[in-house]
């Protein structure tokens, strides 16, 4: 590894990109390190295999307890993308196989690409018909919009709406959405990758048939996740093989990753209330500070203090998504990066080109607003010093990016 | 200096970035995404626009320990390079898109953005020498790229750094190999980066459609056949005309008339010219006094020709060639040099070829 040069030399970075991935929790690191030193395939019948299986099953029970699911409803996956693919395609296939008229997929255009691209693939290759849901300017999908799109539901195979939006932080009322789907007999999936450990969440109470979660957004390892799948939900597998995970997801269990996922989920859910109150206060100070220095900045997504009908947060506690009129998001990102501050412009293509946020476009924002936006996301390691570091540079950075934008 | 190294993913820009780092500059690597429809993997030796090329550039930036970003300039590239390229062919001219890209993208859009973001200059892997504001040919005559830089102005050159002008291509590859860059043996890119299959005529046909017209022989006045689009021809072209003259002697394209879509061909003698008329000139430095004795290069890999340059009285230049030339195509740049064997020929500037003629023949009755 060559030494960092230039503006990077010897600087500690201010990490404001927890929604991309958040540092591994010490409890997860310890549990994984211990397990990595052990041999044993959880499918083997001997003592080492049984021990690996014991750790995996205990992890399954810990996760189930933390998120309000039964242990048999926790299917381990390789992460959020796999969970979304399995839920959307698997529920679609199972439902359509049972009833050939059911080929419609009802989905929000503000979903993560793991859902969007799965749906578009079904449309292209599996003769699915996609109905795109109306998205509120806040980024939320209402139960009314879902009910309207479902109609009598007889031709719908699956509906999917994310619990909390990864870009602009909008939280939807999943219980009400699931109820709207079930009222017309449609299975409902929710991508809750950003929600677990950030928002009050109970799988049984929310009523969803399937829920995607992943480790690295809540302090667990990358490459480990779970699909919570109700016992009565029919889901066609994507991966065939040894029949692990209720025959829905074959593959040798990655026990070290799974025990890390369990430790992180338990810890993140356990201290959620206190931690998110602290993180939300930091986030509020960050936004207020930026507004003070850049008065025409625009907050995207729900209001910071927005709440759902049940009084729970209407916006992810660590999320600040801001548009800086007249500046390009990628110029802002580069200028902040050079000053040791790390944030996000949303999604980038495989080559690394920053793209205008499809989420903002889905909320009705224009392309200029989408292109001028940045996401700051705080998490469990965030401090006042991180916010101070951003506020110390944001005004000149925005000014310079605006000059470049006009160039 | 704080500099942007434009990194295509090729060996030249990799070594240029490395030399800039070693010279003590604060370097940030930038890969330009110029195509809206990027291929995942590189095909053949063309271009620098695949995701694989971006990956190659990123790995060199990793090795150098410099920050690396991808800048999306696909819209600007389409507006300023691809569309004018198509329009020039449609108008019967032969454009040079690399020169246009240097003028409008690398040393305009990129340099302007770099300057606005507090950088001083853009480093590229072009083979040309640039010292004290003077642009000169590379020491490697075979790889010299001063022709496609001849369009740059003094202000643009003030924000350019070309670290490779003083070394041969072999030396560039050797430096890359010494450092273990995977791109050390990557083939040179050639042809036009946005014509990914190398078939320029096919690319133009897709954009402009079938536009049949006659091929007329200037030697006999006869129509020798038809073509499917005048944009498939370049003045001076001999191969692929698809017609045979009665005398069995080779024919060359003499002219392209876009309205009637007439492609005029003629004999080798008829294709020769000794005077070039151009549009307005741009200069790399102070505007020289005219008339001027210089050398002119009339296409990317052309041989320089001694000439006398005067004003044409209409805002352009009249370039009288000491040696008759075949195939001087309107739309190409006439790049003017002051020969200097020791320090490298000095690039004075350039102007787009408007017309070329034979001074003696033009005065004769047809």
What does this structure look like?
- The complex is a heterodimer of chains A (407) and B (366).
- Chain A is α/β, with parallel strands linked by helices and 407 residues long.
- Chain A has helices at 26-36, 47-67, 80-98, 113-125, 143-150, 174-183, 203-206, 255-270, 272-293, 329-338, 358-362, 367-371, 384-406; strands spanning 14-15, 74-77, 104-107, 129-132, 156-160, 188-191, 210-214, 225-229, 298-300, 319-323, 341-342, 373-377.
- With 366 residues, chain B is an alpha/beta fold.
- In chain B, the strands form four sheets. Chain B has a six-stranded antiparallel β-barrel with strand order 12-15-14-13-16-17. Chain B has a five-stranded parallel β-sheet with strand order 3-2-1-4-7, sandwiched between helices. Chain B has a four-stranded mixed β-sheet with strand order 9-8-11-10, with no helix packed on it.
- The mean pLDDT of chain B is 92.
- The A-B interface holds A 1-8, 330-331, 334-335, 337-338, 348-354, 400-401, 403-407 and B 2, 21, 26-28, 31, 33, 38, 40, 51, 54-55, 58, 62-72, 112-113, 115-118.
First-to-last CA distance of chain A: 36 Å
Summed up, the helix count of chain B is: 8
Largest sheet of chain B: 6 strands, antiparallel, barrel
Helical/strand content category of chain B: alpha/beta
Round the Cα radius of gyration of chain B to an integer and report it: 22 Å
Biggest β-sheet strands, sense, barrel of chain A = 7 strands, mixed
Tell me the helix content of chain A: 40-55%
Which helices and strands, and how do they pair?
The complex is a heterodimer of chains A (407) and B (366).
Chain A: E1 14-15, H1 26-36, H2 47-67, E2 74-77, H3 80-98, E3 104-107, H4 113-125, E4 129-132, H5 143-150, E5 156-160, H6 174-183, E6 188-191, H7 203-206, E7 210-214, E8 225-229, H8 255-270, H9 272-293, E9 298-300, E10 319-323, H10 329-338, E11 341-342, H11 358-362, H12 367-371, E12 373-377, H13 384-406
Parallel strand pairs in A: 1-11, 3-4, 3-5, 5-6, 6-7
Antiparallel strand pairs in A: 2-8, 7-8, 9-10, 10-12
Helix pairs in contact in A: 1-8, 2-8, 3-4, 5-6, 9-13, 10-13
Chain B: E1 2-6, H1 11-22, E2 26-33, H2 51-64, E3 68-72, H3 74-90, H4 97-116, E4 121-123, E5 128-131, E6 134-137, H5 154-157, E7 160-161, H6 169-178, H7 200-208, E8 213-217, E9 223-227, E10 252-257, E11 262-266, E12 272-283, E13 292-297, E14 305-311, E15 317-326, E16 333-338, E17 346-357, H8 359-363
Helix pairs in contact in B: 1-2, 1-6, 3-4
């Amino acid at each position: 590894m060559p030494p960092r040069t230039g503006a990077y030399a010897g600087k500690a970075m201010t990490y404001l990109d927890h929604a991309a991935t958040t540092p591994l929790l010490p409890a997860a690191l310890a549990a994984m390190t211990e397990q990595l030193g052990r041999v044993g395939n959880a499918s083997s019948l001997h003592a080492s295999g049984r021990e690996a299986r014991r750790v995996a099953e205990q992890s399954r029970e810990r996760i189930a307890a933390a998120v309000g699911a039964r242990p048999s409803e926790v299917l381990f996956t390789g992460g959020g993308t796999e969970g979304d693919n399995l839920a959307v395609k698997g529920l679609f296939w199972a439902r359509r196989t049972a009833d050939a008229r059911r080929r419609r997929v009802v989905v929000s255009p503000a979903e993560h690409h793991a859902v969007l691209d799965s749906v578009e693939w079904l449309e292209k290759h599996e003769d699915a018909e996609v109905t795109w849901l109306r998205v509120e300017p806040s980024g939320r999908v209402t139960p009314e919009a879902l009910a309207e799109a479902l109609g009598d539901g007889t031709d719908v195979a699956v509906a999917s709406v994310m619990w909390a939006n990864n870009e602009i932080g909008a939280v939807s009322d999943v219980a009400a959405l699931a109820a709207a789907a079930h009222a017309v007999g449609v299975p409902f999936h929710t991508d809750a990758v950003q929600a677990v450990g950030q928002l009050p969440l109970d799988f049984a109470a929310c009523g969803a048939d399937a829920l995607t979660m992943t480790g690295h957004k809540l302090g667990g390892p990358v490459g480990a996740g779970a699909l919570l799948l109700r016992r009565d939900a029919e889901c066609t597998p994507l991966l065939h093989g040894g029949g692990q995970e209720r025959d829905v997801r074959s593959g040798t269990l990655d026990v070290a990753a799974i025990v890390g996922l369990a430790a992180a989920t338990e810890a993140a859910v356990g201290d959620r209330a206190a931690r998110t109150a602290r993180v939300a206060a930091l986030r509020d100070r960050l936004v207020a500070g930026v507004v003070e220095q850049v008065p025409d900045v625009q907050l995207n997504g729900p209001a910071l203090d927005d709440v759902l009908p049940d009084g729970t947060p209407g916006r992810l506690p660590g999320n600040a998504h801001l548009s800086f009129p007249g500046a390009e998001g990628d110029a802002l990102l580069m200028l902040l990066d050079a000053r040791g501050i790390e944030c996000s412009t949303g999604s980038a293509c495989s080559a690394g080109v920053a793209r205008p946020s499809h989420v903002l476009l889905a909320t009705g924002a224009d392309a200029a607003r989408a292109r001028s936006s940045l996401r700051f996301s705080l998490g469990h390691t965030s401090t006042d010093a991180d916010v101070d570091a951003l506020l110390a540079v944001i005004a000149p950075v925005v000014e310079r990016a605006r000059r470049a934008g006009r160039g | 200096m704080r500099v942007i190294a434009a990194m295509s993913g090729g060996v030249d820009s990799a070594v240029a970035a490395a030399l800039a780092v070693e010279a003590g500059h604060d370097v940030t690597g930038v890969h330009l995404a110029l195509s809206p429809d990027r291929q995942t993997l590189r095909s053949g030796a063309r271009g620098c626009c695949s995701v694989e090329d971006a990956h190659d550039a990123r790995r060199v930036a990793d090795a150098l320990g410099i920050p690396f970003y991808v800048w999306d300039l696909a819209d600007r590239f389409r507006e300023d390079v691809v569309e004018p390229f198509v329009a020039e062919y449609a108008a019967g001219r032969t454009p040079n898109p690399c020169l246009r890209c240097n003028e409008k993208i690398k040393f305009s859009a990129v340099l302007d953005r770099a300057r606005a973001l507090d950088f001083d200059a853009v480093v590229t892997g072009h083979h040309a020498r640039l010292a004290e504001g003077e642009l000169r040919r590379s020491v490697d005559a075979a790889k010299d790229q001063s022709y496609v830089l001849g369009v740059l102005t003094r202000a643009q050159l003030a924000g350019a750094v070309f670290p490779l002008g003083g070394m041969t291509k072999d030396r560039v590859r050797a430096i890359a190999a010494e450092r273990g860059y995977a791109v050390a043996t990557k083939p040179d890119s050639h042809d036009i980066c946005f014509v990914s299959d190398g078939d320029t005529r096919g690319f133009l046909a897709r954009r402009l459609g079938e536009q049949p017209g006659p091929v007329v022989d200037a030697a006999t006045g006869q129509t020798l056949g038809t073509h499917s689009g005048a944009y498939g021809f370049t003045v001076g072209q001999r191969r692929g005309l698809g017609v045979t003259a009665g005398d069995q002697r080779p024919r060359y394209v003499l002219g392209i008339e876009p309205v009637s879509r007439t492609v005029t061909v003629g004999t080798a003698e008829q294709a020769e010219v000794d005077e070039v008329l151009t549009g307005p000139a741009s200069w790399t430095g102070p505007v020289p006094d005219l008339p001027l004795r210089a050398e002119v290069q009339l296409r990317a890999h052309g041989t320089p020709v001694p000439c006398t340059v005067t004003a044409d009285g209409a805002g352009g230049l009249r370039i009288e060639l000491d040696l008759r030339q075949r195939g001087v195509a309107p739309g190409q740049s006439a790049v003017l040099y002051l020969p200097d064997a020791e320090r490298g020929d000095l690039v004075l500037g350039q102007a787009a070829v408007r017309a070329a003629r034979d001074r003696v023949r033009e005065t004769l009755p047809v």
